[in-house]
Every structure is written in structure tokens, then in C-alpha cells.
What we know:
This protein is α/β, with parallel strands linked by helices.
Amino acid sequence: MRVAAGxxxxxxxQDLEFAxxxxxxxxxxxxxxxxxxxxxxALGQPDYTFNQHNPSWRYDxxxxxxxxVQKHGLRLESMENVPVxxxxxxxxxxxxxxxxxxxxxxxxxxxxxxxxxGLGYSFMLLQVHRSDWASPARGGSVSNAFRRADIEDxxxxxxxxxxxxEIWERYEYFIRRVLPVAESAKVTLALHPDDxxxxxxxxxxxxxxxxxxxxxxxxxxxxxxMHGLGYCMxxxxxxxxxxxxxxxxxxxxRKKLAxxxxxxxxxxxxxxxxxxxxxGDFDVVEAMQVLHRVGFDGFMMDDHVPHMPxxxxxxxxxxxxxxGYLRALVRAVGQLSAKAG
Length: 341
Ligand SMILES: [Mn+2]
């Protein structure tokens, strides 16, 4: 297993040099292109129109990005998320769904052609949500939190309730359509859970909020060598620490962990906060031992990190700490098991 620097919103020479300084082998690019603090999209604003000019990622853009990363002696491990607008019709079953699906397939094909091995996706209609984006964390750092009790007014995001059954139907339609394309393009699709994993938010069901939902997607609906999990240990721990370990063992043993978001939290589902990696609820050493035991051979990355004073928007300081901590854990667990074994 190996560590990558994750969640780059744009990749430039300086970021790649920074990744090299941290000693990682690769980077991951997260193209969500969405300000999580701005919930207007999520609340179903009608101003969306299908972007005819840029409906998918083009091969030349992806190839250029891949070349730039390789030039720095790094791997481009994955792309995570296409921009939100590229899945809007798919997730809402809107009138332009077919065109958007064609565009999504074109993106997968272009990624395959450019030699980029993985694409992360999620199926949240309301994206990642928090009640507090500036929650005080260790030593005066700033993190975020979700506390159901703090959400006073919860209007229906789409003007009516959207049930889990409806979203499952849309999800199945999506994954059955795009998975064969991923298989022939040799691009692994990796499913990220709904964060927070509450059953419903603003009247919209959140389907990927349990162990069983993930098992259903991966084993019943869309089993494939090119389909796995973008296992967000933070979000899984929001389900519960037990669920996080259950999923890690179960999917790890079955080689269904495409990659990991290795982060930690304190609390559970309706009331939690993000923490530094070394102070959350689950034991990170134990988690690394599980990965070692199941022979996880993919990559892990930092995901969200607390924000430190004088840090950049991308949180270079917080990420450097998290990444160094992960690299040390990987090495220590590997070395100690070799001695013990
Ligand atoms: Mn995550």
C-alpha cells in the first residue's frame, strides 16, 4: 500500500513539487468544482442548464495533466468526482439525462485513453453537508462539524420528498449504463459514501449511508473488477466505528477497496466533528493493521484536514502533517508485522 497526496483541486508544478517533498508516490485530483459552503445548487435552484460547451473532460486535457504529473516522477492515481454540474441530470433524472450519461461515458473513455486508472464518484443529491464549517478544533485549528440539532430550518431541497427507492432507481440506471464503458476503458469506478450518512437531509434520501447499501451496489447491482469503493474512513466512522471496521475488513478481504480517504472524526452520524488523524474515535493503528492483514495494495490519501493558522486554502500545513503521519503508519505497521511474522 502507498500514500498519495489527495484532493488537489487543480494540479500545478508547485503542488507536484510539494507532493515530492512529502515523499509520496502519487497524487489524486478532486474535480468536484463546488463550494461546499454554498448549498444553493443542492437546494435545487432552477438556473441550471446543461453545458453544451464543456459537457465532459477531453482527452487532450487529461493527457496533458497526466504528462505533467509523470514529469515530476509521480503517478496520477485517480480523478475523484467530475464537477457537480456533469451529474446533475443523472442524479435528478432530469430531461437531459441521456446526454449527460453520454458525456460521462465520453469522460471515462478519455480517461482510459490517457492512461488514468480510476474515477471516484458519489451519488449524493445534496453533496457533503455540515452544520458548521468553522468548528474549533485542537489548539485553535479550525475544522467542521455536523450537528443535526443545529439545523433549525430544513426546507425540502427539491420541493418534495425524494425517497430512497427513487434514488436507488436513478443510481442503478447510472451505474448499469457507465460500468460497461469503464470496463472496456480499464478505468476503475470508486464509490464514495454519503457524507453525512444520515437517512435523509432536506427531504432527500441519502442511500449510501450503511454497510448494506454498499454491499448491494458492489455485489448485487454492479459487480465488476472495475467497480470498487472510495472508502472514506471518516464517513464510514460517522456511521459508527464498528461499521467502519466491518466495511474495511469485509471489502478489504474481497479486494473491493479501490482507495481510501484516511481521516478521522469524533462523534457519530447526527453529531460529529472532523479531527486530526491522531485524535478521532477509531484507532488508526488498528485500521492500518487491518489493511495490512487483508493485503490492501492500493493507495490512501488525506481527504479533509483541520485548517491551521496561516495555512493555504488547500491546507498545505494540515495535509503535510496528515500525510507524514500516514507514511509513518504504513512503514511502522509493515515493519512490525514483518518482524512478528
Ligand atoms: Mn471522503
